[in-house]
From TrEMBL, chains A, B:
The keyword Iron does not apply. Catalyzes the hydrolytic dehalogenation of small (S)-2-haloalkanoic acids to yield the corresponding (R)-2-hydroxyalkanoic acids. Keywords: Hydrolase. The keyword Aminoacyl-tRNA synthetase does not apply. NCBIfam families: HAD-SF-IA-v2 (TIGR01493), HAD_type_II (TIGR01428). SUPFAM superfamilies: HAD-like. Its EC number is 3.8.1.2. Belongs to the HAD-like hydrolase superfamily. S-2-haloalkanoic acid dehalogenase family. It comes from the Bacteria. The lineage of its organism: Bacteria, Pseudomonadati, Pseudomonadota, Betaproteobacteria, Burkholderiales. Pfam families: Hydrolase. This is (S)-2-haloacid dehalogenase.
Length: 229, 229
């Protein structure tokens, strides 16, 4: 099979390390940081699904707003006192995430191969813009695509179609990379070739469709190009 | 405002007590029963959303199959050895749930008021049939509606529309009752009057739309009829 002509990356957890969020949560709420980070993330994703599925997306809110709502819910549920200052400190972590160390190397290798590169993320354009600039990735990405353009979150097909529309390629010629199993699954269902970056040795979703490949870091993206060109 | 002319109930967690599932999980996996029950339930709901949102429902599987898939995932994730016998034992709990004790009384009161009653559930028809018969509620329910008819899980509007279609009433004249906050939210967005049965003093979803009312048991359904007729 020919090598992919474009590679699209999920952002949060895939290109950008969200672990620092848990560290700040632990500083603010000692002993509860991990529980808060997990519930916050779960709720953030749950809210993207609720607003996408209900009434055909009529209740859409940008990712930043859903992230804030999820934080407020998580603190109420865990009975943690979320002052405005603490909320601002935690939310700011989402603006200034560090990139995983192998990112630049992998993106540079893809550019050297002439492969189109991009992000396809639930994040809203402002969040993504700051994250890409902070990580110094601007010159290595041809596309920074936010689902905000279609007001539907992944795994809605309108969200994944942003990638085929932007690249002008059929999904089968595009590799979609995500460290979120549900995202790798949704992209596989959409028709993309997929790499699930399983950084923490988790089981894949049990819905019967595997990703094209599974890897442990972004370096495994390059395995799709080993025998090609 | 006039009293509702029909009351539709969510099934799992609302009419039927899923707590026994956690008890069996704890017997099978001592010290891990609660964690398994929570993850299993979360994953079950997550899977309903993934198959509903992706590719316009093309990956639909009935609730029983998703419940089984979620159990398998949860055991893998928690590193619990799920033998076929254990799987069967846990799945059987979903077939034979007990009803909350106030159910019959509330349904009888509604029938005495001439109110149309029903279930509107993610469960597939077979699961619901067994549960309703086991709980002895068959004679008190005018409708037992499964989202299987439209192959879209709640909170998809096609799922909620089963209730207006079956009753022939506008959503504003129907009370939808759920102990799941996300379900009460989705039903409110759809246009139903809603009661969130908050049995465990949880915070409501932080997405800006409250249910019509909040209660602590199904008895609170009757509060919608206090000043009417």
């Amino acid at each position: 099979m020919a090598a992919p002509r474009a590679v699209l990356f999920d952002a949060y957890g895939t290109l950008f390390d969200v672990y620092s969020v848990a560290l700040v949560a632990e500083q603010l709420f000692p002993g509860q940081g991990q529980a808060l980070a997990v519930l916050w993330r779960d709720k953030q994703i749950e809210y993207t699904r609720l607003v996408t599925t209900s009434n055909d997306g009529a209740h859409y809110q940008p990712f930043w707003a859903l992230t804030e709502a999820a934080l407020r819910f998580a603190c109420r549920k865990l009975d943690l006192p979320l002052t405005p200052a603490r909320e601002q400190q935690l939310m700011n972590q989402y603006r200034h995430l560090s990139a995983f160390p192998e990112n630049r190397r992998v993106l540079q290798a893809l550019k050297a191969l002439g492969v189109v590169t991009g992000i396809l993320s639930n994040g809203d354009p402002q969040m993504l813009g700051v994250a890409v600039r902070s990580a110094g990735l601007s010159d290595l990405l041809d596309h920074v695509l936010s689902v905000d353009a279609v007001r539907r979150y992944k795994t809605h097909p309108a969200a994944y179609a942003l990638g085929t529309d932007a690249t002008g390629l059929p999904a089968s010629q595009v590799l979609f990379v995500s460290s979120n199993a549900w995202d790798a699954l949704g992209a596989t269902w959409f028709g993309y070739r997929t790499l699930w970056v399983n950084r923490w040795q988790q089981p894949f979703e049990a819905l019967g469709t595997p990703p094209t490949r599974e890897g442990s870091s972004l370096d495994d993206v390059l395995s799709f190009f080993d025998t090609a060109s």
